[in-house]
Amino acid sequence: MMDNVMTGKMSQKGQVVIPAIIRKALGLTKGTELSFKVNGDEITIKKLPTALDWANLVKQIPIEDVEIDEHGNYDPKKSPEFHDWMVNG
Hints:
Layout: H1 20-26, E1 34-39, E2 42-47, H2 51-59, H3 80-88
Antiparallel strand pairs: 1-2
């Protein structure tokens, strides 16, 4: 994304402004939930996924009916996505 370092100041109320270029790049708007992690003298800020983010992720998962017999066998030609997942993870 961006390799340059940006600086800012903390207000008297402990507020810090996230630069507009970062807000735009990450789609941060009023009410966006963020997580904060402290590691020594560094703070990592991450955008938390929304319900819409999860819904869009789930839409990308292929749906495939897999017929598995009583011995745990399936036909890889009928279920190529499942077979790929079984073989390659």
